Amino acid sequence: MKLNYKKIAALSAAMAFAFIGSAISLQAATLSDQDKQFLTAYGKARDALVADDLAGAKKAAADLGPDGAELNKSTSLEEARSAFGKLSDKAAKLAAGQTGYYVAHCPMKNKDWVQTSTTVADPYGGKEMLSCGEIKK
Q: How far apart are CA 48 and CA 104, in angstroms?
């Protein structure tokens, strides 16, 4: 069997380009300024809910624009946490693959959230369940 080194080299180069292309497509998309603003306001709402601060959560909701309308209308921490859960879905999608963001999970409430620290601070349980949850891999 005779090896054709030119064909092998061409095949190797094609495979390398395909691999590089797929690696680039797997990288996280760069966040727009609007996405960064959303994640910043979302983080402020999370911090307020961790502290059981309804007024602070509602104030942060105003910076979320239309996405924060339900949170802004909340009249109790329970309502605010429910609205926050819906915002967490968007935040997790935006934060996926981004450095400095961690998705955490509360097993008691079966809900996820995004935070910028590896120390768990559960917005769904607030002060009563501050450390409930874990960072997802």
A: 17
